[in-house]
Design a protein that fits this description.
It contains 16 helices and 26 strands. Helices cover 31% and strands 27% of the residues. The strands form six sheets. Strands 2-1-11-10-12-13-14-15-16 form a nine-stranded mixed β-sheet, sandwiched between helices. It folds into three domains: 225 residues, ANL, N-terminal domain (Rossmann fold); 78 residues, Luciferase, domain 3, CATH 2.30.38; 96 residues, GMP Synthetase, Chain A, domain 3 (2-Layer Sandwich), CATH 3.30.300.
């Protein structure tokens, strides 16, 4: 079944049950289904056809969810865009996806204005809220509902940065989600009285999955505009939320804010966490903050439709041997460890690249055949790019990364992208960007630079901030005489990282 058909079934079976809660607004399954039909009709009237892409640049909202399902009803594909990106980055993603329609929140009109003349494939720009320049979403979507269902293969296209420094469009299908959702329903023990929270941005696979999981389970989904710890705590209390996914940095912030401790969070039955490594201190603090809540760590990638492993609540024993594990594979997923150089399978306990075979594996990267072949092997295995090992009981322990990706506060940062920007500064002769430990964010980017002119570290950081999303920018800069490289010119990043990770149990914080 495709996901829009699933929504129709929920609306027919439980028309008066609450589907989503957003601020003071509540919408039933029947009303949400009707809105999705209206949005589908608006997209069709705007020339959107099967296979077309519809880009969304906004923080979480009800229209975001309407567009996710509405695009699917005309066989099109939603392309969520990270609202934290700089205008040039937004323009690249919208252009790469060849989005025929772009929908943005009113606060992102300045971004639209900055890139409007570069959206060569875009025929309609819609803004959620009245503006003087663009079509208003409310008027645009006010259509007579049409029961369309083109049932395209791809459901959503999420962009994940690549080692080349340019984002890659990860194509996830209806089948990917319909394989994952029954597992979510069972492993999370969702019940008719459950209430899930969409706390993570919907451009993130976790936010997207939680939004769709609410429809699959036929339960209310509380949509948070943005991941604000105090707002999350207040909404948990107000709506008696039972299930939520949070990244480790949010768990850290929640422990530091008095308003969170004062909130009644006793309704929470399961707290899922993942997307970046978590320290023992943060995890133990979260367990103290929520003594009656079960905890479950999950590990996955955008390319695997999110979680492919889980560490169950019973393994969350303080100081337990498995607390640093990412858990065991989902029932429909198989993992193996391979030698990164030869591809040969490795036995339990030996460290190598983590490979995954799962019906959750992506269809591929949009318009990137070679990158798809490099990641999806002919025999069905997906190369995760992460290094780790499986113990004798099948628990996965993540040790390091094949790629140089930095994960800061749950956001993926690829050094090549930052290095490309730094090399554009006239005073930078050479550079390398590495991840260094950070108690708050897990790790943050550090720029090591060879200078050919006068410039301060602060000036270089500001230079990056004018060209990249702030979370990607270096938080520190260190001058050096030369960047160490091997004979083929590859930067020896392990050598650069070593002084900062000495004493750490692994190079993933």
């Amino acid at each position: 079944m495709n996901l829009t058909g699933m929504l129709r079934e929920r609306a027919a079976a439980h028309p008066d049950r609450i589907a989503y809660i957003y601020g003071d607004e509540q919408v039933t399954f029947a009303e949400f289904d009707r809105r999705v039909d209206s949005v589908a009709a608006a997209l069709r009237a705007s020339g959107v056809r099967p296979g077309d892409r519809v880009a969304v640049l906004d923080k979480n909202s009800l229209p975001y969810a309407e567009l996710l399902f509405g695009a699917a009803r005309v066989g099109a594909v939603q392309v969520p865009v990270n609202y934290r990106l700089a205008p040039d980055e937004v323009a690249y993603i919208v252009g790469n996806a060849e989005a025929r329609v772009v929908v943005a929140g009113a606060e992102f009109v300045p971004v639209l204005d900055a890139i409007a003349d570069r959206l060569e494939h875009t025929e309609h720009v819609i803004v959620i809220g009245p503006t003087e320049t663009y079509e208003d979403y409310a008027a645009w979507s006010d259509r007579v509902p049409e029961e369309l269902d083109e049932a395209g293969e791809v459901f959503v296209q999420l962009y994940s940065s690549g080692t080349t420094g340019l984002p890659k469009g990860v194509m996830l299908t209806h089948d990917n989600f319909t394989e994952l959702l029954p597992l979510v329903d069972t492993l999370w023990d969702l019940k008719p009285e459950s209430v899930d929270m969409v706390a993570m941005p919907m451009y993130h696979i976790a936010g997207c999955t939680l939004a769709v999981a609410a429809v699959y389970a036929g339960i209310p989904g509380v949509i948070m505009r943005e991941p604000d710890p105090v707002a999350i705590a207040k909404a948990i209390e107000a709506h008696r939320v039972t299930h939520v996914f949070l990244v480790p940095v949010l768990l850290l912030f929640m422990q530091q804010i008095p308003q969170v401790a004062e909130a009644d969070l006793s309704s929470l039955r399961l707290l899922l966490y993942g997307a970046s490594p978590i320290s023992d201190e943060v995890l133990r603090g979260a367990m103290r903050l929520l003594p009656g809540t079960d905890f479950m760590q999950v590990y996955g990638l955008t390319e695997t439709t999110g979680a492919i492993t889980y560490l169950p609540p019973e393994d969350h024993v303080p100081d337990g041997a498995r607390l640093r594990s990412a858990g065991v594979p989902n029932p429909s997923t198989t993992l193996k460890i391979a030698d990164p150089a030869t591809g040969e399978d490795l036995p339990p306990g030996q460290v190598g690249e983590i490979l995954c075979r799962s019906p959750q594996n992506m269809l591929g990267y949009w318009s990137l055949e070679q990158a798809t072949r490099d990641t999806l092997l002919p025999d069905g295995w997906l190369r995760t790019g992460d290094i780790g090992y499986l113990d004798e009981d099948g628990y996965l322990f993540i040790h390091d990364r094949v790629k140089d990706m930095i994960i800061s506060g749950g956001e993926n940062i690829y050094p090549a992208e930052v290095e490309n920007v730094l090399m554009g500064h006239p005073a930078v002769a050479d550079c390398a960007v590495i991840g260094v430990p950070d108690e708050k964010w897990g790790e943050t980017p550090k720029a090591i630079v060879v200078l050919d002119g006068e410039v301060t570290g602060r000036e270089l950081i500001d230079y990056c901030r004018s060209r990249l999303a702030h979370f990607k920018c270096p938080t520190s800069v260190e001058p050096t005489d030369a960047i160490p490289r091997n004979p083929t010119g590859k930067v020896l990043k392990r050598q650069l990282r070593e002084p900062y990770w000495t004493g750490e149990s692994r190079e993933v914080h």
